[in-house]
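Hi X.,

You mentioned you wanted examples for the new student's onboarding notes, showing what a folding record looks like when two proteins sit in one file. Here is a clean example. The first protein comes first, with its sequence line followed by its C-alpha cells.
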Amino acid sequence: MRANSEIGKQLQVFVRENNVDQALRILKKKMQREGIFREMKRRKAYEKPSERKTREKAEAIRRARKAARKQAQRDGLLPAPKRREETRGGMAGRGRPPRFDPAAARAKPPAA
C-alpha cells in the first residue's frame, strides 16, 4: 500500500514575494500529482474489502495496459500520441471551447 509508506511525507511550497495565489496553485498541482485529492475522495465513505479488491485489481489492469501501450509506442508498433498544437499563451486544449454566439454567427458573412 502506497499510502502507508508515505505517512508523514510533507509537501512544501514557498511563497515568493507575497504571491499566495501562485503558491496555492503550485500546492494544488503537487497535491494532484501525489494523488491526495483522489485519496480524500476515496476515504469519504467506507469501502468494503470486496470493493477495495475490485478497485485495486482494475487499477492494476489499467497500469499494465498503459505500460504495454507506452512500450509498444517506444518499439514503434503503435504511432506516437498526437501532440496538441500550441497557440497563443500555450493554453491549447485546456478548458472548454468558446461558447457559440448566434448573434456573432449572423454578423459574419458566410464564407464563399
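Then the second protein repeats the pattern, sequence line and then C-alpha cells:
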Amino acid sequence: MNLIDIPVKTLDKPTGMASAIMNELSDHLKRLADEGETNIVDLQSLPMTEADINELADMLGVGEVKATISSIGTSSIRETAYRGIWWVTHYGDDEKVLSELIEITQVPEILVTHIDEIRHSAQSIAAVN
C-alpha cells in the first residue's frame, strides 16, 4: 500500500479565522468612522474553510439593504448588521463565485453611479422632453 492509497478525510471546522477577521473589521470600521478610510477584505485570499465563511456570516448578521446587479454575471451586495460593512459576492455566468469581498465603506463602489453614466442619462432624459 502506498501513501496515495490511504483515504484522507478533511474536516470542515472553524479555524478561528472568523474571529480574527472580526477584529480586523472592527479596526477598519473605526478608521472609516474617524478618517473616512475605506477597506476591502478579500475572503478568497485567506485560508478559510467553508465553516469559517459560515461562522463569519453568522457573526456579521444581516442588515437592511440588499442589491443585485446583473451585468456580465451577477453581483450580490448586502449590508451586514454592522452599518458600513458590506458582503459583496461576484458570480460568473456559470453561477460560480468569482470573488467574495467584505467592503468597509459607506456605499460599495459597485453601487456608485459613474459621473459619465449620469451625464449620459441627463442627455437621454432631456431628449425625451
